[in-house]
Amino acid sequence: MIHDLSSRCDGPYVAVNAAQITAANLPHIAHKASGGTVLLDEIGACPPDVQPVLLRMIDTGEVLPVDQGGPEQIDLRIIAATNEDTDAAVKAGTLRADLMYRLDGFSIDLPPLRERRDDIALLATRFRQEFATQYDCVPPPLEEDELSALMAHEWPGNVRELRNLMDRRVMMARHGMTMPQDTALDTKPGDTHKTGLRTAVAAFERQMIGKALHAHGGRMEDVAHELGIGRRTLNEKIVKLGLDKNALL
Q: I need a surface site. Which of 1, 16, 29, 138 has the fewest CB within 10 A?
């Protein structure tokens, strides 16, 4: 998205696993991404002998092709990603501090799913719609007991785990089957999360109603119809959730 919304959007976008970079193929990668963006995924796994070469490339905007004469100018944006603690990696000596300083011009910290539980219902609904389209079926509703189980789960696999679970959920619903939550998730009976189901449901409803109000220009009948609730229920929810209708239009 950063690449697509930038002035480099017409240039190439190249994603590479940093662990697979060598001093010999780094110039090739840089040339391939020149004029665009290169994503160095899992930068903490970048080989130690490649890190000074990468550092020089960032500092000078040049690469030194192997056995091809002098330095060559390159023009690219570098995005580095990792799920490691970079401070710990620097202290352990596996990641050069000076390289980390060069890469850390602007940081985006994406917390794990368990730390942003308000997103769970929205993502689950989005993935259900995606897979329902893929399997040419109606997406199964997100029932309250299922949402409760999703909220209580710790999501060690983050968003990928949730997406894969929704894939199975839609596929099974397409064949008239349900997926028992005690086998789909490692949630124990009676588990609840400190944020509370009501808080999550309220956040989900606030997002859905706000989106519908904006899409229909505040026409309450159309909003109620899209959400599948009565006009009176919609008004009550707007008041209860503290939504400013005018601010959403």
A: 1
